[in-house]
Each structure stands twice: as C-alpha cells, then as structure tokens.
Amino acid sequence: MKYTQAGAEYFDKRRLRRSAGVWGLWGLAVAAVISGDFSGWNFGIDFAGFGGMLIAFAILVVMYYGMIFSIGEMAAAMPHTGGAYSFARSAMGPWGGLVTGLAETVEYVATTGVIVFFSAQYANGITTELLGFDLSANMWIWWLVLYIAFIGLNAAGAAISFRFAIVVSIISIGILVVFGVMALVSGAFSWDALWNIEPDPGQSAFLPHGVLPILFALPFAVWFFLGIEELPLAAEESHNPTKDIPRAGFWARGTLIVTGLIVLFLNTGVLGAEATGVSLEPLLDGFRAIVGDGVAAVLALFALVGLFASLQGIMFAYGRNMYSLSRAGYYPKWLSLTGKRQTPWVALVVGAVIGFVALVVLDLLARVDAEGVGAVAGAIILNIAVWGAVLAYFLQMVSFILLRRKFPNAKRPYKSPWGLPGAYVAGGIAALVFVGFAINPTFQPAIIAILIVYVVILIGFAVWGRHRLVLSPEEEYALSGGEHGDPQQEGYDAMAEEVFEEGAQEPSNEV
C-alpha cells in the first residue's frame, strides 16, 4: 500500500458539518428502516408461512441486539464517517476494509433501489385510484422523479436531513399505530387468517412448508431492521458521537421491534398469510381490506411517508459510505467532494445513477421473462440489498472480536453490555442468513450480480487504488493502533509526518 500526502486543501473540499443530537440520530435510524414495515418483509411468509416468519423475526431480534451493541462500542471508539469500512480496516487491514465497505455500498445503493421500487408502486396505486393516472407501463418515470427529489433533499444540508428524518419517523410510526388500531377495532383482523396457507403433506399450519424455509425467510426478516446499522456513518455530523450513537441505536432498536410486531401480526391477520406473502404493497392492501379502495388510497398517501422516510435515510447512508471510501482513496477521490452545504452530493448522484440503471435493467429483463424475473423483480433487488447487509454484518462482528484483541488499550467510551458473546452470536446468525441465500435457487441472480461487482472493484483496487490511499481519519486510527480518534479535534492529516517517519512508503505529490 502507498499513501498520498493530501494536506489541508484536500480535506477542506471534503468537510462535513455537525448537525445531529441523539434524537436526530434516532430519527435517522428509524427513518432508514421503517419502510421495511410497509413493503418487502412479507415475502418471507410466502416461503415459510406465518410461523416460520415469526421464528425468523425472533432470531433477527437477537442478532440486531448483539450487533448494535458491538457497533455502538466501535463507533464510540472511532468517531469518524467510515462505519463498517473503518472497523474492518483497523481489524483486518486495507483489503478487509474494502471488502466490508463495498458490502455496505452494495447494501445501501440496492436498498435505495428497493425503496424507490416500492415507493413507485404505492405512488402509482394512489394516483390510479384517486386521479385515474396510471404509469404502470412506464414506472421508470416514477423512479427518476423519486431519485431526483431525494438527491435534492440530501444535498440541501445535514441539518435539514436530520429534521426531516425526525418528522417522517414520527409520522410513519403514527401511521402504523393507526393501522393497528383500525385492524383491531374494525373486526378485520382474524387470528385464523395467520395460518391460511395450505400445509404441504406432513407439515403443520404453523410451518406449512417445514423447518428449512425458515432459512429462506431470514433475509426478508432482515428488512424489519436493515439500515439501523448506518448510525456510525453520521459520526462526523453528530454533536457527541461517542455518547449519542449508542443511545440512538438503543432507542431505535426498541422502536423498530414494536413497529415490526404490529405489521407482522396485524397486517397478516387482516389480509391472510397467503395474500400477504405475495403482495407488493401489503400495508395499502391491508387498508383496502378495512375501509375499501377509495379511502385506502387517501390513507396510502400517509403510508407513502414511511417509504419516503427510508428513502431519505438510506440515501444518506450510501452517500456517507461512498464518501468515506473515496476520501481514503479506495474509490475515485472525486466521489468524496462536498459542496457549499458540506454534503457529499457527488456520491449521492453517482449512487442514484447506479440504482436507477439497475432498476431499468431489471424492468427490461422482467418484460422479456414476465413469469420468471417479472414475478420476483422486487424480491431480486431486495435480496441484493440483504446479501450486502449480512456480509457487512458478519465482517463487522469479526472486526469487533479482532479489535478487542488487537487494540486492547484503545479508548472505548462505550462498551457493549453483551461483549464478545454478543458479537459471536450476531456473527453466527448473520452467517446463517448467508447460508439461507446460498442454498435457495431464487436468490442466485442476486449472488451472481454481487460477485461481478466484487471482482471488478477488487481488481481495480489491486491494480490502481492501493497505490493511492490517503491518510483519512479511518486510516490514521488503524495505522496509529487506535491512538488517533476524532479527526475534528486532531486534524484530518495529523499523522502525515509521523507515519512516513516510521517507515511507510514515501508520499507522492498526487492528490
């Protein structure tokens, strides 16, 4: 590896602004995830039935407790934007950092695409019902409008993003609570409807397809929580990251468990497990079942807020993820440029272009193969997102374990109450979800797509990127053995001289 001496001018063009307290971070975490309660999770019921999905949900609750505690400890020790890349870079070196950071890039760019896909489904359903305006033959128009609108929102400034996240999170929670109350008081909820999938021969109503499909349901259960782990990416925009990130993670996790249980039980009990498992818009279908099409379309306007919340939150995440990897030289350096409002607008645009192109390609393939790709188009891109997520989860838990041993004396303002056992459990469950991907033929297109991305990026880094790394805060923490922490207190190139004096490669003048 060779490091480029960047200097103050380089980092001046790549600055972020501190804008968030604990509730801003809570709003960001909840906003990023909550669309998973509106669409996507329900496909797991089609694989495993309601009972299998309930077991998958319980397993994932345990995983996210162990993981968020572990991530909170690492984020407090490393209060800079790199997140998963930063943790893995310190624990496993530059290659480990890149592999983990790329997994998060795949996760967040694909997740944004999934949310755009489902948001467009909801929006088109609303305009069709209320205005007679149907774009189902040209959904790319909805996708383009959504990407442009939310690039603008995220580029407007971090303070605006955090305020928006708090507001839409509260509105989204309110919508889910209203749905739950309506489901119970209207009489539309039926306990028997939870078990209406016809069991296979020799199986039960609780697990209509047996035990093995629980593995296939796990990736969809991830959708109830996917995105909460983005909190460390806001470290350089948080007023007090060492305290507020662990606190926000704790409160956000509890919030999302409650909202997940509301839709898992009540949405399924209103529609029935069989219908829920194949719905592209389960919450909207649930409202329709309770109040009819016309009123449901009006309520869906509010439901759409939940999807918009996650669209903003996850776009924030991929922007910061790509920014940090670019600032350190793993991705092209121009991706980390920030504008006058100190937001990584270039990374936001590039991630949106990648997601939009992926949706268009998938749409074209679906038109060619309507019964194959077309029938599972949403699930394919969802699985790309979840595959990237569980790989990043596993590698972060490995990083936590290694860092406890490798940097035993590093300052840890917050320590995970579950410690190493929590990381082992969370890492094991993430590996189990990964196995669920590997043995399910339905997920193979997602795996192939991600492997192609990895091959291209890793070859590029081997040939070009590893000779042009920059002493970003994430790299300084790793190279200093955990002695350098907050870049906004110590400076962004504090180690420039001492690293090279210790025998590292001589710096070039390239920036």
Structure report:
The two termini are 15 Å apart. The chain is mainly α and 511 residues long. The chain is globular, with a radius of gyration of 22 Å. Helix 2 (22-34) packs across helix 6, helix 2 (22-34) crosses helix 11 (293-327) and helix 10 (282-291) runs antiparallel to helix 11. The chain has 18 helices and two strands. The protein has a single domain (3-501), classed as Amino acid/polyamine transporter I (Up-down Bundle), CATH 1.20.1740.10. A two-stranded parallel sheet has the order 1-2.
Question: At CATH's second level, what is the architecture?
Answer: Up-down Bundle
Order of helices and strands: EHHHHHHHHHHHHHHHEHHH
Low confidence ranges:
500-511
Instruction: Give the terminus-to-terminus CA distance.
Output: 15 Å
Inertia-based shape: globular
List the helices and strands and how they pair.
Blueprint: E1 3-4, H1 8-12, H2 22-34, H3 43-77, H4 84-131, H5 139-155, H6 158-185, H7 213-221, H8 241-271, H9 273-276, H10 282-291, H11 293-327, H12 345-368, H13 377-406, H14 419-438, H15 444-463, E2 469-470, H16 473-479, H17 487-490, H18 496-501
Parallel strand pairs: 1-2
